[in-house]
Amino acid sequence: MTSILLEIRDLTVGFPQKDGFAPAIQNLSLKIEQGESLGLVGESGCGKSLLAMTLLDLQPASRIVNGDILFKGESVIPLEKRHALRGKEISMIFQEPMTSLNPVMKIGHQIGEVYEIHKKYSSEEARKATLEMMKSLHFSDPEKVFDKYPHHLSGGMRQRVLIAMALASDPLLLLADEPTTALDVTIQSQILDILKDHQKKMNMSTLFISHDLNIVSDMCQKVMVMYGGYIVESGTVEDVLGSPLHPYTLGLLNSRPKGFHQTLEPIPGLPPTLSERQTTKGCLFASRCSKATDICLDQRPELISYQDHWSACHHATS
Ligand SMILES: Nc1ncnc2c1ncn2[C@@H]1O[C@H](COP(=O)(O)OP(=O)(O)O)[C@@H](O)[C@H]1O
Ligand code: SF4
Ligand SMILES: [Mg+2]
């Protein structure tokens, strides 16, 4: 039997402006079951990081104006409820490792603190657990790195420190925002294996944000494609990435690097800005879509289910 750990219902989040309000995430719904990994993909600026940050109230400039967020069946819209989840039941690995670490605190103590606070370990126990965690994350000399400061480490090492801190509290849900982008390819696959192992062992759920569709298909059971603040396609990884219904998903698949001799087919044009989203009447992808017709310019398509494979496109089945 499965149980829903996180449920988001019809969520709209945005930024108050001088002359009104600019929504950056619109009418977004999703469910993540215990132990499940949901991938979130889409070009830069579509609202992926904002969604993860909203779950922990980490973007103070933004406001939720509609919808509900349920964690373990309970609404966490009140700010204090989301603050209480931070680093405990929900951990986050951020895109930029340097800004997330304390520059004047030794690496080992930053990781150890998580064990001391969340698991009530003594400083001795925390040191031991920290060194074990660092070893499992392929630090070649954990004892030495323990006493270093963030600026002593490479970008890849700092990212692994953040991963260690995120996993140390054994969260029920991990928000992984481009967790391996700063790592080189060999370390990347080792770290992804560690995340997978941890997920299985602890029955941890993951919201896995990535622009890399290959990583998402390796890490996740389900995937959502975001465009201009909306979910435009969602379903199992097999359905969405294997038989995409939405032209945008197809565009993402065609624009990813393939073989050495194959040319990339980037999607023409750019995603809509926040203000363009508000002034556009029809489908936000229309100006970039080769399948666009009159109805696309006139009506915003709704997310419709085709046997649990959802797509927001007027011509999804054609
Ligand atoms: N503080 C802010 N004020 C106004 N707009 C913002 C702010 N932070 C982010 N945004 C806008 O919110 C949108 C979503 O951003 P983000 O979630 O970071 O995108 P992604 O992670 O998908 O690249 C973007 O259009 C971005 O410009
Ligand atoms: S609704 Fe029309 S413009 Fe939008 S993705 Fe579908 S075919 Fe393209
Ligand atoms: Mg982002």
Describe the structure.
The chain is an alpha/beta fold and 318 residues long. The protein has a domain at 4-89 and 171-248: Rossmann fold (3-Layer(aba) Sandwich), CATH 3.40.50.300. It contains 13 helices and twelve strands. The strands form two sheets. Strands 6-7-8-3-9-10-12-11 form an eight-stranded mixed β-sheet, with helices on both faces. Strands 2-1-4-5 form a four-stranded antiparallel β-sheet. Helix 4 packs parallel to helix 7 (155-168). The longest helix has 18 residues, at 185-202. The mean pLDDT is 93. Bound molecules: adenosine-5'-diphosphate, iron/sulfur cluster and magnesium ion (MG). Residues 246-247, 283, 285-286, 289, 291-292, 296, 301, 313-315 line the site of iron/sulfur cluster.
- Sketch the topology as an H/E string, one letter per element: EEEHEEHEHHHHHEHEHEEHHHHEE
Largest sheet composition:
8 strands, mixed
Distance between the termini: 36 Å
The number of helices is 13
Output the structural class: alpha/beta
Blueprint (SSEs and pairs):
Layout: E1 4-17, E2 20-33, E3 37-41, H1 48-55, E4 63-71, E5 74-75, H2 79-85, E6 90-93, H3 97-100, H4 107-118, H5 123-136, H6 142-146, H7 155-168, E7 173-177, H8 185-202, E8 205-209, H9 213-219, E9 222-227, E10 230-236, H10 237-242, H11 247-254, H12 274-279, H13 294-298, E11 304-305, E12 310-311
Parallel strand pairs: 3-8, 3-9, 6-7, 7-8
Antiparallel strand pairs: 1-2, 1-4, 4-5, 9-10, 10-12, 11-12
Helix pairs in contact: 4-5, 4-7, 5-7
Residues 48-49, 95, 177 line the site of magnesium ion (MG).
